[in-house]
Amino acid sequence: MRQRHATDATAGAAAAAPEAAVWLDVRLETVEENLALDEALLEEAHEGLTTAPVVRTWMADGPVVVVGSSSRIEEEVDVDACAAVGARIVRRPSGGLTVVLGPGCLMWTVVVPHPEGAPAIEQIHARMLDPLCAALSQAGRRVARRGSSDLVIVTEGGVERKCSGNALRVRRHGVLYHGTLLDAFDIELISRVLRHPPREPGYRARRPHAEFLTNLQLGREPLEAAVRQAFATACLRSTWPRERVARLLEERYHRDDWTRRL
Q1: I want to staple 218 with a disulfide (CB 3.0 to 4.6 A). Which of 58, 122, 222, 242 is the partner?
Q2: Which domains does the chain have, with CATH numbers?
Q3: Helix residue ranges per DSSP H, the chain
């Protein structure tokens, strides 16, 4: 009886083990399409249509300002400066403050199904950022977690400069986690189009963007390899929810009234 009980318990544990993460190889043209895809993947996870975590990366081909779901544009963004440099403003489905995207800033996304219910926020941050931090450090940069969802490079003098800002959206049965990896980005552009944030982590100490942000300088391929390593992607997927993305673009991401609602 004892042997049978142990075998049954082992089988149950195996059945409960999470599936290996899937690497989604999709290249979409616009930031709006990519944000809609992130939200569409979250919908699928929440509805139980996917059972494995989905991991992807992408990069904007020009400057775009992306505000958080609850961000007030005038408070965080210099709208006139955006117009001057040709940076359009879009709104993402997750929280957090405004970021600037473009060549040299790799975006990463992980969508995780949680059939039994999503964990606590701090657990989510740790599960996402700790393995990524370790993979980036192994790739050659001394990276550490700071604040609630930042990654920083620690310089020889002990100064911490942010290289990654991240945000999440939690639904009952799924979590979307995505963010930036500054690698070869124009930091001065951020200083031009963004105001000083209305709130900041203590370690920032009121430093302006140019003194607070820095690039990883690893290159796109090593960064993508670090993301894949961090989340142990085991197989490749190329299909994506086209109809959901089209619906979300029509309902949200292509609507100026949705983007400018705050």
Answers
A1: 222
A2: 24-259 (3.30.930.10)
A3: 2-16, 31-46, 73-76, 79-85, 121-139, 187-193, 209-212, 220-230, 242-248, 256-259
